[in-house]
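Contributing new records

If you add data, match the layout below exactly. Sequence lines come first and carry their own label; structure lines follow with theirs. Keep one chain per record. Anything else will be rejected by the validation script.
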Amino acid sequence: MEDYSDIKTQFDLSRRDLLKGMATATAVGALTAAGGASLAQASGKPVRAYGVTTAQLKDWGIMKKSLGVDMEFIGTDNSVGVFLRDVVASKLGDEVDIFIFESGTEDILGPKGIYAKIDEKHPELTLWDRTADDWKRSAVVTSKDGGQYGVPVIGNADSFGYFPEKLGVSKDGQDDVSWAMFFESDVTRGRVAYDQTWTYSLPVAALFLKHHGRVKINNVVDMTKEEASKVVDYLIERKKAGQFRTLHSAFEEQIQLLSNREIDVINCWEPATKEANKALGDNTVFYAYTEEGYFKWGHGAYVASQATSRDNLDNVYKVLNYFLGGEYRAHQARDRGYAGPNLDLGVKYAKENGWSKADIDSLTANQAKIDRKFAKPFVSTTTPENSSVMEDEWQRFLNA
C-alpha cells in the first residue's frame, strides 16, 4: 500500500487522467454487465455494492427473499490503496450505490464528497435509534470532523489461530495466550506463519513490544519512523532466528496452512480457523484470546454521493438497515464468527427461524467472546498518517 496522503493529493488531479490505465474500469464494466443480466429478474432495482468480500453473505438470496431487493456485489481485497484509487479514478459512484470498507476511508472520502452523509431519519432506517453508539458513532463510520458517513456492518478482534496441543495450553481454547508464543517462543520457532501485509502484521508486533515495555510507542497503529524502526529491528532478529516458517498473503492460504498442519500458529482471520475445523474436526484449531490485545477492526457501509440523486435510494437504505438487523447479524456470526450491532436481534432471528440449539448457543457465545476481546486495546485503522514510513520499515523486514 502506498502512502494514503499521496492518494489524497489525487483528488486535486483530473479524474479523467487518473482513469487512464486503471484496471478497475474492467470491474465497473463487469458490474454493469452483471447488473444488466439481473435487472429484469429482480422485483425492484438491485442495490450495487463494491467492497471487501468478508462483508458478503454466503448467499445474497437470503436478503432478497426478506427485502425483495437484489444485491449486485463486486469484491475487493483489504488494500486501502487499491480501494481508494478504484473509487476515485474510476468514478465508481456512477455505477455503485454502496461502498463497504474498513475504518479510515471515511476520513478521506467523506469530507471530499465521495461519500454522502447518512440520513439518520430516513424512513427505511428503522433500526438506527436502537443501535448502540459504540457501533454507530464509532470511528469506523464517522469522520474525524464528526460527519456520520457510514452504517456499521461487521467487526472483530483478530489474533492468531493455533493448535493447543502444540503450544502446550488448555485444549478448550479459553486461555489468554501471549503473543510471545507467536513471535519468540522456542516451542513454535519455525512453525509460525506471518501475514506479509504490514497494515495487519506490524501493529500487533508493536502491541506486543509495547505491552511488555520493550519499546516505547505512542500509537501502535500509527508509529513514527523511530518507533517502527525499532519494531522492525526486532522482527528481523526473529526472522533470522528462524521464527517464521512462511509469510502468507491470502485467505485461502490461511486455510491451507492450517488444514494441512504445515504450521502451529498463524495470524489470520477467524473464518480461516472455522474452515480448517471443517476439515480437521471441531475444536482442533482455536482462535486465540490473547494477553496483550488484538487487531480490532470494523467495516462500514457508505453511500455513494451519486446514489442520493438516483431513484433507488429507498432500496439503498433498506440494505443499510438490513446490515443492522437480525438476519444479517445471525448469518455473519454463525458463518464467520464476526460481531456487529444488535446481536440480540440475531439471537431472536435464529430462534424464530428454527435454528438448532447449537447454532443459537454459538451466537450467544460469540457475543461473550466479543465482549471479552473488545475490552483489550484497539489497534486498527487503514489510513495512518505515518503509513509511508511504516511501509518503508516493513520492506526492510521483507527484504531481510
